[in-house]
Amino acid sequence: MNPPTPAELEILAILWRLGESKIQAVNDELCKIRPVGYTTTLKTMQIMEQKGLLGRKKDGKSHIYFPVENQHSTQVSLLERLLNSAFAGSKAALVMRLFGDNSISKDEVQELKAFLDRLDSDVTTDLSNSKGKRKKS
Amino acid sequence: MNMPTLDFNALIFAFAWTMIQSIWQNGVVAILTHTFLQVFGIKNPNVRGHLFCVALITCVVWAFTTFWGLYQSQLSNSATLAGGTTFAQALNSLTDFDHFEAYDSLYLLDLFWLCGCMILCIKLIYEMFAAIGLKQSGTASFNPEWLLRFEQLKQQIGTKKDIAIRLSQRVTVPCVIGYVKPVVLIPTSLLLGMSPQQIEMIILHELAHIRRHDVLVSFVQATIKIIFFFSPAVHHLSNRIDQEREHACDDLAIDACGDAFLYAKTLQKCAELHLSINPRIAFINHFFERNSMLKQRILRLFANSTEPYVKTRNAASIFL
Questions:
Q1: Does A109 sit within 8 Å of B192, measured CB to CB?
Q2: Any residues with CB less than 8 A from the CB of B247 and at least 6 apart, and which?
Q3: Complex-level ipTM beyond the 0.90 threshold
Q4: B314 to chain A: nearest residue by CA?
């Protein structure tokens, strides 16, 4: 499967944020950055659905599109893998990235997500507990 | 005053031995630095970063003095020693195991260094051109509201440089490119995938890099890494500098925006988006590092602050 083109990436990003939505909603978001015609977005999303990047389901007369979880990890070529491991962690000159190297794995991201979610829920329980205590006294 | 002519053989001798000596010298500097940091319990990433920089400079200075000392001693000895070799001789010595000529080995060592340096220099120059290309093509400008907000964020961080901010279709991770006329690049996909508050935090982090002149420092680091490419301690020190630099910028960004938790979530979300787009197998990571730099950064934010964090949220709830 080919990695998404830049335009497709923008649409995927919108869907990741909004969740599944109709083409109109996606087009509205895109127009906030620069004017894009509805038919352009429509065509791109249809192509993405054929490529397998998006899924589609019927909602009355129209369709709702949703991003499909991509399973690229098994399809990365061996050469790409070698190149990545050779240059992994190579920090390019004159560039400061938000997180420098490619050394973060999918597992770690999931781990961090779980950690942060747990932290958030701990705080919410603490808050509700303290509120409960206040009510009693 | 007459400039003494460069004695080629003395040069080769001194250079090769400096290389060899520098390996243990750098190790000593690294160990001393770590001990110092441990003994004095220095936690502030700014201070730590500067100390590691000082350590790196010490390595360089020590190497220079070693070289100079060796060179001078060789000059004064050259009258008595027969030494000296040619390229052909040195190559022959590779296969000729019966006659070990010290000079041949040192010659080869220097050649090895020269080759390694040249390759790494070419790589560096290539990367620089690629970076400049990223700055110039495939970008679009932000809308006026964002540009105004950007100016406000610049003031918040405390930098007055002439900085441009652009959307880029060619990067997948937010970055800053360039030092004299820096450009902050935000991937288009990110802008659409995150809340404005989160994007502001990312911008604050990048602005923190600019304020600390990190691009320049990392360039100097890269040069030192090329010259000392054979020394593991130098690579280690350089990695530590990078780590402390990210920690310091995280702290600056959080100071400016005030919400450590949301910041951590932003970083994690960025990583998620980046991985979906550029799935890479963490080859090296499994073998060498348990925790990637990003994981360390996020965990550090909460390491000794689960209490204060709860307190801040409690305090905030009063206003809700």
A1: no
A2: B45, B48, B49, B297, B300
A3: no
A4: A127
